[in-house]
Amino acid sequence: MPDFEAAANTIRSQFNSQFGALSPTYDIAWENVTFTPPDREPWVRFTIREGEASLPAFGGGSNVYRHPGVVIVQVFAPDGTGDGTARQIADSIAAIYRGKRLSGVRFFDAPYINVVGTDGAWFQINVYAPFEYDLLT
């Protein structure tokens, strides 16, 4: 049963290994790490957001705390290049988590995308991969 840090490390590790294996490779902006976007090349920003926990089972000497959350990967492609590359990258990201169980972290809800559109020099699509894990105490 993971805690906050263990769950985040599992989620990041899965992304880093699977996304890093894609060809061509794309730069990743990680949370709270200095990053400069590449010039006119696609790149992604990786974020984990936890939701409000619940207590679905308690008593008998132990409690189960359910922690939902979502992985958000923002895909950026140069403006004026169409949406094809951004959608291909989004498809690859969704496949990384779709239907996976990783060290107690469950990705049973389907990943989905949201087209944000163009903002300045970048066209953006966000990929959302809902997850949950249980902490037993």
CATH classification, class level: Alpha Beta
| Major sheet summary line | 8 strands, mixed
Low-confidence stretches: none
Structural class: alpha+beta
Global shape? elongated
CATH architecture: 2-Layer Sandwich
Distance between the termini: 9 Å
Q: List SSEs in N-to-C order.
A: HEEEEHEEEE
Kindly provide the radius of gyration, computed on alpha-carbon positions and rounded to a whole number of angstroms: 17 Å
Instruction: Write down the overall mean pLDDT.
Output: 92
Individual helix count? 2
User: How many strand elements?
Assistant: 8
How much helical structure, as a percent, in the residues? Answer: 10-25%
Strand content: 35-45%
Question: What does the model show?
Answer:
The protein has 137 residues and is α+β, with helices and mostly antiparallel strands. It has helices at 4-20, 84-97; strands at 27-29, 43-50, 54-57, 64-78, 101-102, 105-106, 112-119, 122-136. Strands 1, 2, 3, 4, 5, 6, 7 and 8 form an eight-stranded mixed beta sheet that branches. The longest helix has 17 residues, at 4-20. The N and C termini lie close together (9 Å). The relative contact order is 0.23. The model has no long low-confidence stretch (mean pLDDT 92).
Describe the SSE topology.
Blueprint: H1 4-20, E1 27-29, E2 43-50, E3 54-57, E4 64-78, H2 84-97, E5 101-102, E6 105-106, E7 112-119, E8 122-136
Parallel strand pairs: 1-2
Antiparallel strand pairs: 2-4, 3-4, 4-8, 5-6, 6-8, 7-8
Helix pairs in contact: 1-2
Task: Name the descriptors.
STM4215-like, elongated, eight-stranded mixed β-sheet, alpha+beta, 137 residues
